[in-house]
Queue: 2 jobs
Job 1
Amino acid sequence: AEPMSTLDFTPLRRTVFAILRNWRLIAGLPLAAILLTVTGYALSTPRYVATAVLQVGMIETEPGSTQPLTPETLSSLEIRDSRILQSEGLAHKVVLRHSLDKLIGPSLTQRLRSAIGFDMTESEFERSRLEKATAGLMNRLSVRNEARSNLIEVPVTDTSPEIAATTANAVIAEFVHAQRLKKLSASASLSRSKLGDAVLVYGNRHPAV
């Protein structure tokens, strides 16, 4: 009887060992391909910049203001306004007022979680979308102070020129709105304080009461 033939696993072993030795390279190739695809897409997508301009001290110099602003005051207001314009709080208000979070779709991680049955709750998804929209707006806007002037420029970048222009104007409008509310609140507080002082001095029969 002829002896039974045996299978030679040597080539298979060599292939497995080669894969194990070069697993980093093999695993890195798909990642490199993904990165190149994303980079190419980002570079091929046109970006537009729209700039809105804010006059420093415009709230403080509204009709009815009696005190002129000194250069030192303007400089201080410029620093304050620049910080507020770049703040997360202002970006959050702009996103909420103009529903910019509705433009954010589910991320790749969220899609994968959904595919394996781990869906986010509606409140979690809304919160995640709001946070992403706020962070995205902060990354897309910048603040520039014009030298030897009381003007602050707020450029906003977007793939849509209309959205860039609308968002830049919205940031300025939200800033002006917030500062006016703050000024009105301070005026009302001062009026209440003066009224309280008048009551203490003249009693409830004072004409201002």
Job 2
Amino acid sequence: FKMAQALVPTLKRLFAPRRLVTSPRDSIQYNPTSKNIIPNPLFLGSGGTNGAGCTGTVASNWSAVCGVNVTAVHSLADANSGVGKKQIITLTASAAGYYTIFDGSVFTNAVVGDMLVAAARINVMSAVNLSGIKFGIASQQSSIEWGRPSSASGSQTVLPPEFAVLAESFPGAWKAGSTYGTASFRFDFAGAGSAVIEIETAEIRRQ
């Protein structure tokens, strides 16, 4: 019983109700005391990068790339929450494939031993053959991610055509030996299809 009592403060800290980003200053890039290590959690600005198969406007600090068979058109609009912007992604797949939007600088803000939680708001609309969604931060040693099955392109599992989710991972430790790490969203298609995705208020937060 005494051991259980001793664990209560730690469990409360790890599984506290999620409070997503409410200000641009809730980021380590603008405020060194912030526990959120994503530099642009509110998808502000328009200086992001379009990679293969991608066009349109990507929020600053973020980069996007399509796998084979997939194209993406990006735009930005005011977030549904009223805080910051939302990244809108219109995806078209001619066959099974994937799309990802990521920030590769995040791992430089993670410290070995950090207990991290990944969380974001994702809205899916008009989805056809969308088979998987994943969000989080991963390296060769660490993986703190949330996902809706399946994470593999070509999976036979197909997600509902319309849904909104507060994607939130379980807490996970950032381990020694992680020499790279990308905060990323990934969307997979089981075959030819399409979807409109809205992403807002993404964070990787120290607990």
